[in-house]
């Protein structure tokens, strides 16, 4: 369970914002919203496609794309 330590003299609002950010990053809020209401098959497909796109974007970001190779043989 994520937790946030309130620092001495820190406003509660700022600590609450840190907690919300932490919950959002771990996907807990999204899962709570999803489980709260019924999700039809079309919404489920959209959600899974968004998640796959996000994973692909992260995977692309951390892998070096190959540079396009120049034509090795001259075209006549």
TrEMBL record:
Composition-biased stretches, type Basic residues, lie in 44-60
Q: Which GO terms describe its molecular function?
A: structural constituent of ribosome
Write out the ranges of the annotated region (Disordered).
34-76
* A GO cellular-component term linked to this record: ribosome
Give one Pfam family, short name only.
Ribosomal_S21
Keywords assigned: Ribonucleoprotein, Ribosomal protein
Residue ranges with Basic and acidic residues bias: 34-43
Q: Which GO terms describe its biological process?
A: translation
Q: Which PANTHER family does the entry mention?
A: MITOCHONDRIAL 28S RIBOSOMAL PROTEIN S21, SMALL RIBOSOMAL SUBUNIT PROTEIN BS21M
Which HAMAP family does its entry note? Ribosomal_bS21
| Similarity comment text for this entry | Belongs to the bacterial ribosomal protein bS21 family.
What is the name attached to this protein's record?
Small ribosomal subunit protein bS21
Q: Which organism is the protein's source?
A: Prosthecobacter debontii
